[in-house]
Amino acid sequence: MTSNLDDLTAIRLRFQEIWGAAYPDVHYVFDNEPPVEEPDGPWVRLSVQPGVQRRRPGVAITTYEQLGRAYLQVFIPDNEGDHDGWAMAEAVGDGFRDWRSEDWTLWVQAPTYSTAQQEGEPFMILVSMPYRSEHRP
Predict the structure, then answer these.
(1) Is residue 125 a contact partner of residue 92, using CB atoms and an 8 Å limit?
(2) Whole-angstrom distance, CA of residue 56 vs CA of residue 67
(3) How far is C-alpha 73 from the chain's CA centre?
(4) What is the pLDDT of residue 12?
(5) In Å, how far from its chain's centre is CA 81?
(6) What's the pLDDT at 35?
(7) How many CB atoms are closer than 10 A to CB 14?
């Protein structure tokens, strides 16, 4: 049996594996955790958002395909440039590209990247990573 919680847990564990090896001193948060207060450098937020779930036809055992996205937001303080942020974004994107869970029920596809900045807010690089998983009741 697999669920959205199983997907979320597997994605978070993979992120911690990638992040801990590359950036152990850079703070990260998950959904519904408080943001980093007055950061003295870059920090990141990982969000996992399940989307559409549909039944897979022609499969003997009732099976559903779950689509979703994992988002990594890399926040960089003003006037620090974007080099380190892009290095972080690509390290995570590369670590998830075509990654599969140990049981092969979860597959993360190639990431897309974008940037955003609003007045008074830190510069942000967004890594969007679509995933598919197989759920059985």
Answers:
(1) no
(2) 12
(3) 8
(4) 97
(5) 23
(6) 83
(7) 19
